[in-house]
What does this fold into?
Amino acid sequence: MSTNLRRPSTASGQLADDVVERLVASVYPDVPLAHLDRLFDYEVPAELVDAIAVGCRVRVRFSGKLVDGYVISLHAGSDHAGKLSRIERVVSPLPVLTEHTMQLIRAVADRWAGGFCDVVRLAVPPRNARTEQSEPQPPPDYPAPDVQGWTPYGSGFIEALRQGRRARAVWTAMPGEDWPRRFAELAVSTASAGRGAVLVVPDTKDAARVEQALAELIGRGGYAELNASRGPAARYRRFLRCLRGEVRIAVGTRSAVYAPVPNLGLIAVWDDGDDLYDEPRAPYAHTRDVAVLRAHLAGASVLLGGFTQSVAATALLERGWAAPLRAERETLRAAMPRITASGDDIYLRSDEAAHSARLPKVALDAARHALGLGAPVLVQVPRRGYLPVLSCVRCHTPARCATCNGPLALGAGRDAVAACRWCGRHAASWACPVCSAGRFRAAVVGAGRTAEELGRMLPGVRVIQSAGEQVVAEIEPEPSLVIATPGAEPVVPGGYGAVLLLDGWAMLTRADLLAGEEGLRRWLNAAALARGASDGGRVVVMAPASVPVVQALVRWDAPWYAERELRDRAELRFPPVSRMAAIVGDPAALESVQHADLPSSVDVLGPVTEPTDESAERMLLRVPRADGDDLARALHDLRAGRSMRKAGDRLRIKLDPQRLL
It folds into this structure.
């Protein structure tokens, strides 16, 4: 089958009559079945020849039903021996897929054992016909910005962007860094050189900060914001602005990594370790990995930035694929707040309760000192809610629902009754299955209960909560207590006088390969909001000082911890040194996986009972990175075979899972 992306024409550029009669379109029908993840040829009727184009949406008949499809190529003739079905209609003549995005979508589908139409749903928003009627506008001028803010990190990366050269870097930002401004400077520098830039951030709060920085540099009309919160019409309008070349800069959340900016020169991802980048829809490709793949395909520059450094980014540095972008150690120390651990020996000697108190004396002293200076205090807690995790008061066995085995939680109020966080059933008559005790204790204290406790300890101080659906983006620089969950910390001009990181043990003792890495990432993101030590900024973490994660925080040395973690994973052959697939499903379905045509190097771990569903089992497949593509192909073929047989049992395949447990 031909994959020529140009419409066949005569020397004069016009379609010849004999070619028109046999013009064929290769189409990906939008069907979810894995065994149909391939191109199908359709005849283009004469009346649609002038409307159809490579990359446009069409309607085709497939298995007797009308379905959407995307035209991937137009060519004369077909390898199909029988009679071809005809294109029913052209939904829109606008090519919503460019040659580059088609290549990217196919590459993502192949790498993560998915289908083309699985990925195109992430890359192309639903059509809005009225929006397409607007006239394209020429892109604005992008003057080269002042980039003095990049001086501590060297000039090599920014100069490469200005000169249109490719550069790949992992940026470790200093505490207190105005990273939205730095990202905006990178994007405008790229656009001023005539190339496109894509900026990807974890959530809409961060996107709003980057948009504000871009607006200050180039005005509101110089970029497009891409995220689902804008609504379908607005999202499609901004998508078209990128596609038509009306702007050279796109900024947004997870799906913005596919933004169709022309002549891509830079793709930058902030805080690539954030779990919001873990795509919840098939084929579950992580945003960071898509960005790296896209930069490779497009020959573009790529930047992975953050206050921390992920282990996956460290692996790119170890392989020489990217270079580190860091400030000198002396410059970093000058910007740091003073960071202490409540479990340090000096505090244990002076405060007998420091090893067990949730808020020891050193933390309260830091908070009172900051409030006395007229500065706000940030208190980070791991969970929202009141008492989100309960356990038996006698033997500390986790309290689970008798119906679905979900975790029990307790809301605020004197008359609150424990209820399951999964199915919502009350557990008024709960009894511990181990020791038969009928009372709970708090295994984890949430933001609501923390706000109550601190309000009593520091009376007269305003308390602000930022968690869940009630996220506060920014607060005034005045005395207040801010209780926030990770990722919901408000920004304050001038920084916080003190940052208290509570329940460190809850961060570090999770049964998760990423527990230490994730704990350090959350702590550094909060600590970066504190003032520098020279301005009285303090950070207190409630954790033992001897733990490597805490040492990395105290020294502000995320690269050291990431390199250490990478060495440990290499010894155990865990990602990112290897590639893994997590497979969850019915026992019979998992047994069929072991009989699939898997690479000879595969290690099969499991199966074991799935923790969230006792009727399902979970299996891990592990191969060396060199065999990762072979594993993806084998799993795609497995999905295709099951789809063809119309297998009724459950099976979910996820390559490169961020959570292994």
Q: What stands out?
A: The domain at 573-655 is CATH 3.30.70 (Alpha-Beta Plaits). The chain has four domains: 1-95, 148-330, 337-385+446-555, 573-655.
